[in-house]
From TrEMBL, chain B:
<dbReference type="Pfam" id="PF01571">
    <property type="entry name" value="GCV_T"/>
</dbReference>
<dbReference type="InterPro" id="IPR022903">
    <property type="entry name" value="GcvT_bac"/>
</dbReference>
<dbReference type="InterPro" id="IPR006222">
    <property type="entry name" value="GCVT_N"/>
</dbReference>
<keyword id="KW-0032">Aminotransferase</keyword>
<feature type="binding site">
    <location>
        <position position="199"/>
    </location>
    <ligand>
        <name>substrate</name>
    </ligand>
</feature>
<dbReference type="InterPro" id="IPR013977">
    <property type="entry name" value="GcvT_C"/>
</dbReference>
<dbReference type="GO" id="GO:0008483">
    <property type="term" value="F:transaminase activity"/>
</dbReference>
<protein>
    <recommendedName>
        <fullName>Aminomethyltransferase</fullName>
        <ecNumber>2.1.2.10</ecNumber>
    </recommendedName>
</protein>
<dbReference type="InterPro" id="IPR028896">
    <property type="entry name" value="GcvT/YgfZ/DmdA"/>
</dbReference>
<dbReference type="GO" id="GO:0004047">
    <property type="term" value="F:aminomethyltransferase activity"/>
</dbReference>
<dbReference type="InterPro" id="IPR006223">
    <property type="entry name" value="GcvT"/>
</dbReference>
<dbReference type="GO" id="GO:0005960">
    <property type="term" value="C:glycine cleavage complex"/>
</dbReference>
<keyword id="KW-0808">Transferase</keyword>
<comment type="function">
    <text>The glycine cleavage system catalyzes the degradation of glycine.</text>
</comment>
<dbReference type="InterPro" id="IPR027266">
    <property type="entry name" value="TrmE/GcvT-like"/>
</dbReference>
<comment type="subunit">
    <text>The glycine cleavage system is composed of four proteins: P, T, L and H.</text>
</comment>
<feature type="domain" description="GCVT N-terminal">
    <location>
        <begin position="12"/>
        <end position="266"/>
    </location>
</feature>
Length: 125, 371
């Protein structure tokens, strides 16, 4: 698998898009999606919610387990992907594209987000 | 345990297929190859190929093999015909379930007991400890076999392409020796998926040849390799118990709703008879908890150990839960107080991380194949 170069990554396996007008798109990586297996239920933060970097803001449930969803940045949620709520398998089939999870107007971002190469090394691939 | 996981004869093949592996009862086993939902659906509608080499085979031979097994197990093994198989259990003196088993009668005085991987050593030790006084021998054959399973409605057609054995004459819960894809095999019509299917016991050195032949013969029928993840959702939909979940040493077969496997009418004593006689009576007069099915109204998935609740009180516990690919909803098996066990009982829910999600109580199984 390859992690897109234009994204940044957290050690909790979220990705963060380039920031546009202060807003970034967030999802989970292909590595994380593969580890989860088929995602069957996604509970996402709601528009207007405040999310905090490194804190849980939802959950992703797969056949075998449930995983907390973390936000890689602090800010206000401006969108949640209703397509994923309706069809959680998008997280598996297109984790970096149609399977995005939510968008955040960034108030603060941690200094330790990883580049694609760093994240690839972090996951040992 | 700190020991390295055991590898099946097909380990390299699984890795070449890109399998996600998992530790299961000390074995490194395929969890899934790609999507576990696709694997599940393949078995329900077409066919799937499994490596089940972690299962524990124990051979019992000798003039008194049948009498011994009828003493050591709860079933009446003396009535198992040559070439037939029986689902049964081994219990402690106090009636607690040690394991559920399939016993295959391979010959006049030869039986193969197949135990769950996690219990194989315990079952072997128990059988060895109980054989004294019988003219019978217990042999550890765990390393003598690899076990492959072809499961699903297309499995007879696939098998016919690789064997001349009389499959039409091979009924459910029967087994016969034969040649499959050029290798000697014990062909059994058994499984753990709720579908028609075959389990093939072969020498480990023949496992890869057999796997490849079945993959090739199965391709036109839609057969795909399947991992343990879908095996779990398949057996759950079919209402089949899993040791460590629905079955434990704290439960008797009667507590688990499987009292039918206990044959009091058989000749002679058997381990657990006294305790099970009392357990059977208890189940009749004052059943403590009953095993039921639960179907979610929402989408959050119940997991083993989650409390089952009603009127704000805990009335049971989930033993297995998963999103059901066939039903399209989360399902669970759970032990609940008898007062809440009737299908359709109102007001039952599962406590999913603090939230009480509504669930419908149903009779098991969730899924039954059309014959």
């Amino acid at each position: 698998m390859s992690n897109p170069q234009q994204l940044r990554y957290s050690k909790e396996h979220e990705w963060l898009s380039a920031v546009e007008d202060g807003v970034a798109t967030i999802g989970i990586t292909e590595y994380a999606a593969n580890a989860l297996g088929d995602v069957v239920y996604a509970q996402l933060p709601e528009v207007g919610d405040t999310v905090t970097a490194g804190a849980t803001c939802g959950e992703l449930e797969s056949t075998k387990s449930v995983s907390d969803l973390y936000s890689p940045v602090t800010g206000e949620v401006t969108a949640a992907n209703q397509d994923v709520v309706d069809d959680p398998s998008l997280v598996n089939s297109a984790p970096f594209e149609g399977g995005w999870l939510f968008k955040v107007r960034i108030a603060e971002e941690p200094a330790d987000l990883l580049s694609a190469d760093e994240y690839t090394a972090f996951t040992g691939n | 345990m700190s020991t390295a996981p055991r590898l099946t004869a097909l380990d390299a093949l699984h890795r070449s297929l890109g399998a996600t592996m998992t530790d299961f009862a000390g074995w490194d086993m395929p969890l899934r190859y790609a999507s576990e939902r696709d694997e599940h659906n393949a078995v329900r509608t077409r066919a799937g190929l499994f490596d089940l080499s972690h299962m524990g085979e124990i051979t019992v031979t000798g003039p008194e093999a049948a009498a011994f097994l009828s003493y050591a197990l709860v079933g009446n093994i003396a009535t198992v015909g040559n070439g037939r198989a029986r689902y049964t259990m081994i219990v402690q003196e106090d009636g607690g379930i040690v394991d559920d088993l399939i016993v295959y009668r391979l010959g006049e005085t030869e039986y193969m007991v197949v135990a769950n991987a996690g219990n194989a050593q315990i079952v072997l030790d128990a059988l060895t400890g109980r054989v004294g006084g019988f003219d019978a021998e217990v042999r550890d054959d765990r390393d003598a076999y690899a076990l492959l399973a072809v499961q699903g409605p297309e499995s007879p057609a696939i098998m016919k392409a690789v064997t001349d054995a009389d499959l039409d004459g091979l009924k459910y819960y029967a087994g016969l020796p034969g040649t499959v894809a050029g290798v000697p095999a014990l062909i059994a019509r058994t499984g753990y998926t709720g579908e028609d299917g075959f389990e093939l016991f072969v020498a480990p050195e023949h496992a890869e040849q057999l796997w490849r032949a079945l993959t090739e013969a199965g391709a036109p029928h839609g057969l795909i390799p399947c991992g343990l993840s879908c095996r779990d959702t398949l057996r759950l939909e079919a209402g089949m118990p899993l040791y460590g979940h629905e079955l434990t040493t704290a439960l008797t077969p009667f507590d688990a709703g499987l009292g039918r496997v206990v044959k009091f009418e058989k000749e002679g004593d058997f381990v657990g008879r006294e305790a099970l006689t009392a357990a059977a009576e208890r189940a009749e007069t004052a059943p403590p908890r009953k095993l039921v099915g639960l179907i979610a109204e929402g989408r959050r998935v119940p997991r083993a150990g989650f409390p089952v609740v009603a009127d704000g009180k805990v009335i049971g516990e989930v033993t297995s839960g998963a999103p059901s690919p066939t039903l399209g909803k989360p399902i669970a098996m759970a032990y609940v107080d008898a007062a809440f066990a009737a299908p359709g009982t109102e007001g039952v829910g599962v406590d999913i991380r603090g939230t009480h999600e509504p669930y419908e109580v149903v009779a098991l199984p969730f899924y039954k194949r059309q014959k």
